[in-house]
Design a protein that fits this description.
The protein is of the alpha+beta class. It has helices at 18-22, 28-43, 76-82, 116-135, 151-155, 164-168, 181-189, and strands at 7-10, 48-54, 57-70, 90-101, 141-146, 160-161, 175-180. The protein has 7 helices and 7 strands, in the order E-H-H-E-E-H-E-H-E-H-E-H-E-H. The longest helix is centred in the middle third of the chain and has 20 residues, at 116-135. This is Ribosomal protein S18 acetylase RimI and related acetyltransferases (RimI).
């Protein structure tokens, strides 16, 4: 996978935070998180917000944390997503707590020209593979609580619904989606 022309910085380490205040994804829930909702979470080491820069402009944001799943009984969706590992009661996962693209830079992606959301997701995939390969950290995959609008974005990039209840739910505030490490690693090979 070719390295994107972006730089990634922790928002907490930025000297000039004015670009963060000016950032908008156009989605109120996401913007509320960016403009301060993350601060208490980050101070308590629950999540970490990063800014994606193209030159001096923030074009995207993402926040990550560690997570695990709990399952009381077998679940077809978990087995579909994680294969044999889906049978374990708990799985180590990386959580995407936030992923957005600055509104002026949002556009439809194509195979030849992936959008910024896809580029950011590929960067997150690379983080997972690096943690596994370079640092020996076991990660079964990624989990995200997606707002309804981006569900198709995640599904088209290899994520599946976490369970049957998520897949069949109507009018939920968020949908829990997952992708396995194997799919992440294959995406990084492209």
């Amino acid at each position: 996978m070719a390295k994107p022309p972006f730089n990634f910085y922790a928002v907490s380490g930025l000297v000039d935070t004015e670009p963060v205040r000016q950032y908008t994804s156009g989605v109120q829930e996401l913007d509320t998180f960016i403009h301060g909702g993350y601060k208490d979470l980050e101070e308590n080491n629950v999540t970490a917000l990063s800014a994606v820069f193209l030159g001096n402009t923030i074009v995207g944001m993402y926040a990550l944390s560690s997570a695990s799943t709990q399952a009381i009984s077998k679940n077809k969706q978990r087995e579909l997503a994680f294969g044999d590992a889906g049978n374990y009661n708990s799985l180590p996962l990386l959580s995407i707590d936030h992923l957005s693209v600055n509104e002026p830079y949002q556009y439809e992606s194509t195979v030849d020209h992936p959008g910024l959301g896809t580029a950011i997701l590929r960067h997150i995939f690379r983080i997972v593979v690096d943690l596994r390969m370079d640092y020996g950290v076991a990660i079964a995959g990624i989990i995200v609580d997606s707002l309804p609008g981006p569900v198709d974005f995640y599904l088209s990039r290899g994520f599946v619904y976490f369970n049957e209840h998520e897949e069949n739910a109507i009018n939920k505030e968020t949908y829990k989606l997952v992708i396995s490490y194997d799919k992440i690693e294959k995406a990084c090979e492209l």
